[in-house]
Amino acid sequence: MLVLTRETTIWKAWIGFNASHSLGIILFGAIYGYLAFAHNQWLLRSGFLLLTGLITLTAYAYLGKRYLWPARTTAHVHQFGTSNRSIPHAGGRFCPP
pLDDT tens-digit profile of 27-43? Predict the structure, then answer.
C-alpha cells in the first residue's frame, strides 16, 4: 500500500476525495431540486441562478465524459494486456471478447 504520510495512504486520500466531491453534487441537486419544486418562479426569474446551474451542470457533464466514461474503454484495457472479459464496460455491460 502506498503511504503519503504516517496517517494518509493513497486509499484514504482516494476515499476522501470521492466522498467530498460526491457531497458537492448531492448538495447541488438538493438545492436546485428544492428551488425547482418549491420556488420555481423565483428560480426562473434569477438569471444568476440559472447561469450558475447551467455552468455547473456543463462542467459535471464534461468531467464525467472526459474522465469517468471514456469512449475508448476497451482500448485502454488492451494497452495493459488485461483481458477485458472481467471488466465492466461503461453502461454496466461486460465487454465482448
Answer: 999 999 999 999 999 99
